[in-house]
Amino acid sequence: MTDAPPPSETPSGWPDLGDLWTVPNVLSMVRLVLVLPLAYLIMADGRLLWIMVLTLLIVATDYFDGRIARWSKTVSEWGKVLDPLADKLAGGLVVMALVVRGALPAWLLAVVAARDLAILAGGAVITKRDGVVLSSMFSGKIAVTALAITVLAALLRADPEVMQVCIWGTTALLVWSFIRYMIRFVKVYRHGTEAIAARS
User: 48: helix, coil or strand?
Assistant: First the structure.
């Protein structure tokens, strides 16, 4: 008879991420759900009012989940997974919808998707091996903010010159944040989580 797995790990070897059903985590899950009708409305060139309402709701859930988690002391490993996952899915689907509509170039979607998949894969490797979930980096938050500005400009049908500045500026920040994430993954993979500073 084999021994039961230790309490800190699931039978599959993945770490126990703690309590899933907290208010901040539910807000992240709501964000995951809201992005589907938002992407559909963008692809279908739906009413701008409803697109903006859904966008504001998504932004609100993103704003409040982390603050509620810190205020209520319910910061969890699940939150470190769900929050960036919701952000990446929202960004990817919205960019894809704008590509379908012809408002953004397809290569920008490829850049966003490749970056996000690489970051998710790297994070999964570290979580599986070390039993920790790495927090989002500041460089990633800057890149996501730039992407949101580009999306907003596309939704509002900004002038071509403005769109070019937004697209290329966002691309540069996405590449920069990708490099920062890869440097951190290599450090952690080689030397463990103690190799990185508390602030990324």
Answer: helix
The CA distances from residue 183 to 116, 125, 166, 180, 196, in Å, are 15, 14, 26, 5, 10
Separation between Cα atoms, residue 54 and residue 6, nearest integer Å:
43
In the chain, what are the domain boundaries?
23-195
Encoded amino acid at 143, one letter: A
Angle 33-174-182 (CA atoms, 0-180°, nearest 5)? 100
- CATH code of domain 23-195: 1.20.120.1760
pLDDT in tens, 73-120: 766 667 777 877 888 888 899 999 999 999 999 999 999 999 999 998
Pairwise CA distance, residues 61 & 52, whole Å: 14
Q: pTM to 2 decimals?
A: 0.77
